[in-house]
Write a structure and sequence with these properties.
The complex is a heterotrimer of chains A (106), B (848) and C (228).
Chain A (H helix, E strand, L loop, with lengths): L4 H32 L5 E2 L2 E2 H23 L6 H20 L10
Chain B lengths: L18 H12 L4 H7 L3 H30 L9 H36 L7 H23 L24 H29 L12 H33 L12 H34 L7 H14 L15 H13 L1 H17 L6 H23 L2 H7 L3 H31 L7 H25 L16 H31 L43 H8 L13 E6 L6 E7 L5 H17 L3 H20 L10 E4 L2 E3 L9 H30 L12 H32 L3 H25 L7 H32 L9 H30 L1
Antiparallel strand pairs in B: 1-2, 3-4
Helix pairs in contact in B: 3-4, 3-5, 3-16, 4-5, 4-6, 4-8, 5-6, 5-18, 6-7, 6-18, 6-20, 7-8, 7-9, 7-20, 8-11, 8-14, 9-11, 12-14, 12-15, 14-15, 15-16, 18-19, 20-23, 20-24, 21-22, 21-24, 22-23, 23-24
Chain C lengths: L1 H9 L2 H9 L11 H31 L8 H31 L6 E8 L2 E7 L5 E4 L2 E5 L4 E7 L4 E4 L7 E3 L5 E5 L5 E7 L11 E7 L18
Parallel strand pairs in C: 1-5, 4-10
Antiparallel strand pairs in C: 1-2, 2-3, 5-8, 6-7, 6-9, 9-10
Helix pairs in contact in C: 3-4
The chains are: A mainly alpha (106), B mainly alpha (848), C alpha+beta (228).
Chain lengths: 106, 848, 228
């Protein structure tokens, strides 16, 4: 945080922002797919609809994991908080979108 | 954002001065005007904060009285106490008052009162805005209460679902009172959110790092950012519904392509974050008071900040759990169910961090601690029923029953009212300067606790055996009668307890012995001052070695600061001076000169009030004319920011000179404008969401064929965008030219003309190409988007006109660039949303 | 008032609670698989919530006393994150699993419920292949799933028969489907469960489940609708 207060705050919020983006993306894909009838199109073992949502979910997990790996580890709050944010983002992406795997789509 | 380097602590020390002389000097500059004039011209944060809290408590009393009427009506099966129409008004007003006129203003008031003291400064960032917010709140609240007294209060439930709140099923002005009154009140919420954010980020005592500031400030920062993002969807929804009611644009009318579910999305997109906006400040009180009363430091500062971060974001992903029964597909419900469950994790982290803190220390059973125990007992249960309601199938049964009523009172009274009372018990010695009277507070606490649980615990069962919320009689359900009677009886016990609490506060302020300084031995700066606090808080601002220390609130620090040994002592120049610091490390950047007492806030708020009343009475042309005074006061508001002449730099410590904000780039006003644009952007994003929702998701008839010719539309849009793009080059160039060659009068005039040209293109589009917005929701939402862009262009044009006026007066000079910078920011925003709107409308037209 | 207090004194609380559970709109007195699954969820939640409340209160009580060394990790990560997450994950799985079971799948008998301020119009099969419209009673066969297609003429209402299933909103411009099943023949109370204006309190109806052997012959023709 060397003279970069706003940037540091942004970095802290980046992890949860990744969750917000992934959550919005998958929810939008869900709504659009139900409206456009993608659930009825097969794509391998799952429907095209579920496949797209799975891809959105994986993209969110990848972004969250990437951020977590990029951030330095450390005990002091200025280093730790961005990492905590990344963990929150990654974990929230995993947990809130897990119904993509098993809930009925439309 | 560049930050100057942080001078070492001892370089910030000033030589001691006589404390009394400093006190007199500062009091002359900072205190309110005497007598009745002071009522209308005060801008001081302590005064405004107290006004917010007192007014909120009065509204709490009114809301409580309404609750008593509800409980009286429900005590028996065939209650003939109120007729249904009045009953509907009463429960609608009970919810609306408690949410909009009590909870939110209460937390704003507490934050305004405490933040500058805790952060080690003398006022909020925008004192006039605090006062303006208060008057908007008061006038809006009076409109709502006036409607209640005249029997025309809103009656459609506090979440105002359409079509019930539409003009067909809710004729008369009842619903308009809610839409206009609440929106008027929300101006104060947005104003408070902007200035709280800026105050916390830019006005901390030098050297108080973000990562070391009191947790209370982190909580309030989280709540303020959430308000910036959460209130715009509600304001948008209210504006759209009011336009539908007033002018027949069918945003929510399914027969003309609208969708009642859009209202629910917009309302709950605000409504659920709102719960956490209310909870965060309350949790901030707990994180402050628990360690002090346990004689230790908080356990897990970092974990708590991370929890706040998690809550701020996650709480925006839960809103659909209020809509589990509207027929949304199960997978979408499951996403929101999972998010609603997950949000319990950061809450649990805090609860366990608090209990761990108590394990770590030696908890003292003083009055605030009693309320904290009441919080734990109540909030844990409310949280657990909340987790149950997050489960979709259970929600299908419990939704809209008395179970939900019980749950939400456990969460709001447990999670907001009890912590607030703990906070009041803790800070009343500061506010009143007096000690409390022993015994009365404890009696009030136990009466409230017993009354509360007696009322609401059994109400869970009432709901599970089928009683819906919002009914007034249940003649065929004798099995609910006993349950309701028990709730009603205990609700009167609870009311008696709140009356005792009020009595205790009044007696303390009136008869209590004078409190000694720092009665709790607190480690925060809010206690490092005389009680009650002087108008200026600190005779000199705290140095880095004082913030966050074990005894920051102690007498030694207080004395040092009172003798002027801190930073920026006294008011030798006769201005209200505060120190502006960098976001991260709080290194000193410049000295801001805050505005003194003025009646402008009440005049500005009153002019908006006239507009609101004209809208309410359906006098739309008069309302349009009523916007002129609003503009006039806004202009005067901005003119008051222009300095009369050049202001020399200020020595904040021996040898350390800082420029004033007139000669600085990163001003508080600039930060505030950025915050406001963030909220404005959320409003725009909500509008785009509404357009997409109506275009893609809403069932109903197909939109009518497009009017006008595509080529003409394209030309108008391209012309408008080109004009806006040209205009956006101006302020940046003007900024350069001022520094090099003086006032660029012609350039600024060109910028104004280009904005007006873009506005003309938009008007052409609306008149010749749009079609009648009353025919179909898709046309209506397109028109709303055009209207929004036009409003931004209009505001940009005002900025340009203001700069032109400044250039004409010869006020623009190398150092004084305020208006140009802010115009630049707004112009950029306008161009961006203009381009996005053009793309969105193009996509919408293609999809037809 | 006095008589109510006397009655209050006469009835012991547990007996009273048991009586209350068996009420006509009680979600705790299920009469179909859907309501039964949800009632089960509730009892499990209640036990869990009771245990957790006691646990937290015990921790709180133990905090009063001499200062102790505490591990920040154990309190914030251990109790705050992992402990709560374990419970919440189990609840998510249970909730989604039960929710999936309650969704309308396959085909089932279809009936219609059309809401307006403040009455209902039900459409269902009648004797001899007729289609019958009624104003107060929805007739269905017991022991088999029935899909109710729910619509509204004016404002938002909600179709709720607590002893059979959860509620589903009636939204103008949309059609929602709710799966109902009554385990045995009988009369089940229902009501509107979304605030819908001045007549909300009495916006009620009944679901009458018939013996499947007599269905739909036993459905009365409109004129013979049973009196209240």
């Amino acid at each position: 945080m060397k003279g970069r207060g706003l940037l540091w705050l942004g970095l802290v919020a980046l992890g949860p922002a990744i969750w917000a983006a992934a959550f919005t993306l998958v929810y939008a894909l869900h709504g659009a797919g139900c409206a456009a009838g993608w659930a009825g199109i097969d794509a391998g073992p799952v429907s095209l609809h579920r496949l797209l949502m799975l891809l959105g979910w994986l993209a969110g997990i990848t972004a969250g994991g990437w951020l977590l790996l990029r951030l330095p580890a450390g005990k002091d709050r200025e280093t730790w908080l961005p990492r905590a944010g990344a963990l929150i983002g990654l974990f929230a992406t995993l947990f809130t979108l897990v119904p993509v795997l098993f809930a009925s789509s439309c | 954002m560049t930050e100057n380097s942080m001078p070492p602590a001892d370089h910030l020390a000033n030589p001691p001065q006589p404390a009394l002389r400093l006190h007199r000097e500062l009091t002359r500059v900072w205190s309110n005007a005497p007598g009745i004039r002071g009522v209308f011209t005060a801008v001081n944060h302590s005064t405004i904060g107290l006004r917010f809290m007192c007014t909120a408590l009065i509204f709490f009393g009114i809301g409580g009285l309404l609750a008593m009427l509800i409980r009286t009506q429900l005590a028996t099966r065939k209650g003939a106490f109120l007729d249904t129409e009045i009953y509907n008004q009463i429960f609608t007003m009970h919810g609306s008052i408690m949410m909009f006129l009590f909870a939110i203003p209460m937390l704003e008031g507490l934050a305004m009162y405490l933040l500058p003291k805790m952060l080690g400064t003398r006022d909020m960032a925008f004192p006039r805005l605090s006062a303006f917010g208060y008057w908007c709140y008061l006038f809006g609240g009076l409109i709502l209460i006036g409607a209640l007294l005249m029997g025309v209060a809103p009656r459609d439930g506090w979440f105002m679902y359409t079509p019930l709140s539409g003009s067909t099923y809710s004729p008369g002005i009842n619903a308009d009172v809610w839409l206009l009154g609440v929106t008027f009140v929300e101006i104060s919420a947005l104003a408070a959110a902007v200035e709280i954010t800026v105050t916390i980020l830019r006005m901390r005592a030098p050297g108080m790092k973000l990562t070391q500031m009191p947790l209370f400030a982190w909580y309030i920062l989280g709540a303020a950012v959430m308000m910036l993002a959460g209130f715009p969807p509600l304001i948008l929804g209210s504006v759209l519904l009011e336009i539908e009611r007033a002018f027949g644009w069918p945003f929510f009318d399914p027969e003309r392509g609208g969708d009642p579910l859009l209202w629910q999305h917009l309302f709950w997109l605000f409504g659920h974050p709102e719960v956490y906006i209310i909870f965060l400040p309350a949790a901030g009180i707990l994180s402050t008071v628990i360690p002090v009363l346990s004689r230790t430091r908080i356990l897990g500062y970092g974990a708590i900040v991370a929890s706040i971060l998690g809550l701020v974001f996650l709480s925006f992903g839960l809103w659909v759990h209020h809509m589990f029964a509207v027929g949304i597909p199960h997978m979408a419900l499951a996403f929101f169910s999972a998010a609603s469950l997950l949000v319990a994790v950061p809450t649990a982290v805090q609860v366990f961090a608090w209990i761990g803190t108590m394990w770590k220390g030696r908890p003292q059973l003083k009055l605030p601690m009693l309320y904290i125990l009441g919080f734990f007992f109540t909030f844990v249960m409310g949280g657990l029923t909340g987790v149950m309601l997050a489960i979709v199938p259970f929600n299908w049964q419990a939704h809209d029953t008395a179970f939900v009523t019980a749950h939400l009172h456990y969460v709001l009274i447990g999670g907001f009212v009890f912590p607030m009372m703990a906070g009041l018990a803790y800070w009343l010695p500061m506010i009143s300067g007096r000690r409390r009277i022993k015994g009365l507070g404890e009696l009030a606490f136990w009466t409230i606790l017993v009354g509360f649980h007696g009322t609401f615990f059994i109400m869970h069962l009432t709901g599970l055996v089928g009683m819906p919320r919002r009914i007034d009689v249940y003649p065929d359900h004798p099995e609910w009668e006993m349950l309701n009677l028990v709730s009603s009886v205990f609700s009167f016990v609870m009311t008696f307890g709140f009356a005792l609490f009020a009595l205790d506060c009044i007696l303390q302020a009136w008869l209590g012995k004078h409190a000694r300084r720092d009665p709790w031995k607190a480690p925060t700066l809010d206690w490092a001052m005389a009680l009650p606090p002087p108008a200026y808080n600190f005779a000199s601002l705290p140095r880095p070695d004082m913030t966050g220390s074990e005894y920051a609130g102690g007498a030694e620090v207080a004395l040092t600061l009172a003798r002027g040994e801190g930073v920026l002592p006294g008011a030798p120049r006769g201005h209200r001076e505060v120190l502006v610091t960098g976001i991260g490390h709080a290194s000193p950047q410049h000295v801001a000169i805050l505005p003194a007492n003025t009646a402008l806030p009440i005049q500005f708020a009153a002019s908006i009030g006239v507009f609101v009343l004209m809208m309410l009475f359906g006098l739309y042309y008069v309302a349009l004319a009523a916007l002129l005074p609003v503009l006039w006061f806004a202009w005067r508001w901005a003119r008051a920011l222009v300095p009369a002449g050049s202001v020399p730099p200020v020595e904040i410590a021996p040898g350390l000179q800082l420029p004033t904000h007139y000669d600085s780039a990163a001003t508080l006003t600039g930060s505030g404008l950025a915050c406001f644009l963030f909220a404005n952007g959320t409003f725009f994003a909500s509008l785009i969401f509404g357009l997409a929702f109506i275009t893609l998701v809403s069932p109903g008839p197909a939109p009518p064929p497009l009017e006008g010719q595509a080529a003409v539309s394209a030309m108008l849009i391209a012309g408008g965008l080109l004009a806006a793009a040209l205009a956006s080059l101006v302020p940046g160039r003007a900024l350069k030219e001022v520094s090099e060659a003086g006032s660029p009068l012609r350039l600024i005039a060109f910028g104004l003309a280009a904005n007006l040209a873009a506005l003309a293109a938009l008007a052409g589009l609306a008149i010749w190409q749009l079609g009648d917005p009353r025919v179909h929701a898709q046309t209506a939402v397109r028109a709303a988007l055009l209207g929004y862009v036009a409003l931004q262009l209009f505001i940009t044009a005002i900025f340009a006109a203001f700069a032109l006026d400044q250039a004409r007066r010869g006020e623009l000079a190398a150092g004084h660039l305020g208006a140009l910078r802010h115009w630049n920011l707004w112009q950029g925003y306008t161009l961006a949303i203009g381009a996005i709107s053009a793309a969105v409308i193009w996509a919408q037209v293609l999809s037809q | 008032m006095m008589s109510i207090l006397k009655r209050m004194a006469a009835v012991s609380v547990p007996l009273f609670a048991a009586q209350a559970c068996a009420a006509p709109l009680s979600t705790l007195d299920p009469a179909g698989p859907s309501a039964e699954a949800i009632a089960w969820l509730w009892w499990v939640f209640l036990a869990g919530a009771g245990g957790l409340t006691l646990f937290v209160m015990a921790l709180l009580a133990l905090s009063f006393g001499a200062p102790r060394a505490v591990s920040e990790r154990r309190w914030t990560w251990g109790l705050g994150v992992w402990f709560s997450l374990a419970i919440l994950s189990a609840m998510l799985v249970a909730g989604v699993a039960v929710g999936e079971r309650l969704l309308p799948r396959d085909t089932a008998l279809e009936v219609r419920a059309h809401a307006q301020q403040w009455s209902w119009t039900f459409t269902h099969p009648g004797p001899d292949g007729t289609v019958i419209e009624t104003g107060r009673d929805l007739h269905i066969p017991a022991g088999q799933p029935v899909d109710v297609r729910i619509t509204s003429a004016d404002v938002i209402h909600s179709f709720w028969v607590p002893r059979l299933a959860g509620k589903m909103d009636a939204i103008p411009g949309r059609e929602n489907v709710l799966r109902l099943q009554a385990a045995s023949p009988g009369i089940y109370e229902g009501r509107c469960a979304e605030f819908c204006g001045i007549g909300y309190a009495t916006h009620r109806f009944r679901v009458i489940a018939h013996d499947p052997a007599d269905w739909p012959a036993s459905v009365p023709a409109q004129a013979e609708e049973a009196p209240e």
